[in-house]
Write a structure and sequence with these properties.
The protein has about 400 residues and is mainly β. Helices cover about 10% and strands about 25% of the residues. It has helices spanning about 15-20, 75-85, 170-175, 335-350; strands at about 25, 50-55, 95-100, 105-115, 125, 140, 145-150, 165, 180-185, 195-200, 205, 225-230, 235-240, 255, 290, 300-310, 330, 330-335, 365, 385-390, 390-395. It has a six-stranded antiparallel beta sheet with strand order 2-4-16-7-8-15. Strands 11-10-9-12 form a four-stranded antiparallel beta sheet, with no helix packed on it. Bound molecules: calcium ion (3 copies). The site of one calcium ion has 7 residues, from loops. One calcium ion binds near residues 152, 154 and 160.
Length: about 400
């Protein structure tokens, strides 16, 4: 379910351009790299928000081909770019994208690695979940998306490295009701209900809601027979139609929230462990919750890529109501940008210098440790206070 108020297209190209030219560059003098961290004064040159989207493969759904809009000739690459235009940047300048039914996903990255700070939630992804108006239950429109994280271990800037799932509260609150190694395949059915089958012997459809969403529901730029794998969370839909005044609402279905560890599951900006409020434990994700394929904890110091996929496979049965459950996301942020940058510097020993100090035989790296060709450095080089080998350099 989308808050239509938020579906406004704005061109954010100019903002992204600013983010591009404010990337800081650094030189690593390997023989002089001290192991200790040096606090940097140029942290404002990095953004805590998403820099770009890497992959967008939604499952079919009522908002697919709509947010972002598919136009004839679009390819996977152009749809990924449209997602970047919607969700890269701060909350005021971003817009929802839909992941469709179970399994549909998006992958994105920031302009730096996000550090796993011990004892802290490290990042959050904002959606459009909200508390239902009659306060009968915890939640209301909670379309939990499952989070995965990955490190760019081969250093090629692409999300082609091992992935780890974030273990959310269902793993402890709903033991026996979570389906791991779940798989669903969707079949194209132009302008009709979209059929699916799963690996548990079930089948069903993503139903059209023509009066609200008249476009095709199968992602038009993707091949037929889309298959997704992952974890299926327990159905969370309850029918409260009998508990509300029928003159106010003929049908009243709500989606119960889970305690922690998901996206589009709890209202944005809630991140307090408060079991006495509807906020419960909020939206923040701790990288320490990452688990491997055997659901065993993994010890990640940084992550470079985040993936979110729709974790629920259910639909609201009443006519003229919600249809399939679909995770939507609008924005994401590093919850501790300064700490992430400090941790990168501590781990790599890299220091920032200004361009006048550079020699052609210096190797230049970005904060992810990737080599940057001298020819692609910006001109003029941005002025700032930098630190090299523990000494401050002031540049104009
Ligand atoms: Ca952490
Ligand atoms: Ca990679
Ligand atoms: Ca939603």
């Amino acid at each position: 379910m989308i808050n239509e108020m938020r579906i406004k297209d704005k061109n954010k190209a100019s903002m992204r351009k600013v983010m591009m030219i404010t990337l800081s560059f650094i030189i690593c003098h390997l023989s002089f790299c001290p192991a200790s961290a040096q606090r940097m004064d140029n942290v404002t040159t990095h953004s805590k928000y998403i820099q770009a989207v890497d992959e967008y493969r939604p499952a079919p759904g009522q908002y697919v081909n709509d947010i972002p809009e598919y136009e004839e000739g679009d390819t996977e690459a152009t749809m990924v770019q449209k997602c970047t235009e919607r969700i890269a940047g701060d909350y005021q300048n971003t817009h929802l994208i839909a992941l469709g039914g179970w399994g549909g996903y998006v992958t994105f990255h920031f302009d730096h690695s996000i550090a796993n700070i011990p004892g802290q939630r490290d990042f959050a992804v904002w959606g459009n979940a909200y508390q239902e108006q009659t306060n009968q239950v915890f939640g209301g429109m909670n379309e939990a998306g499952i989070v995965m994280v990955s490190k760019d271990t081969n250093g090629n800037g692409l999300p082609d490295d091992p992935w780890y799932e974030i273990s959310g509260s269902c793993d402890v609150d709903s033991v026996g009701k979570v389906i791991y190694n779940y798989e669903v395949t969707y079949q194209r059915n132009p302008m009709g209900n979209i059929p699916w089958t799963d690996n548990q012997g079930n089948s069903g459809t993503i139903d059209r809601i023509n009066q609200w969403h008249p476009q095709e529901y199968y992602p038009a730029w993707l091949p037929d027979g889309l298959t997704f794998q992952g974890t299926r969370l327990p159905d969370n839909m309850v029918d409260l139609s009998e508990t509300v005044d029928s003159s106010w609402s003929q049908w009243y279905y709500v989606l119960i929230g889970f305690r922690y560890g998901y996206v589009d599951n709890l209202p944005n900006w809630t991140d307090k462990a408060d079991a006495n409020s509807w906020n419960y434990e909020g939206c923040g994700i701790d990288i320490s919750w990452a688990v491997d394929e055997n659901r065993q904890p993994v010890n990640l110091d940084f992550v470079d890529f985040v993936r979110v996929y729709t974790g629920l496979n259910q639909k609201c049965p009443a006519p003229n109501w919600w249809g399939e459950t679909s995770t939507e996301i609008q924005c994401a942020e590093d919850l501790h940008l300064d700490a992430s940058l400090d941790a990168i510097r501590q781990a790599t020993g890299i220091r920032t210098v200004e361009k006048g100090e550079m020699r052609n035989d210096n190797k230049v790296y970005d904060l992810q440790g990737r080599v940057i060709p001298h020819a692609s450095l910006p001109t003029p080089y941005p002025s700032k206070i930098t630190i090299r080998n523990g000494k401050k350099y002031f540049t104009k």
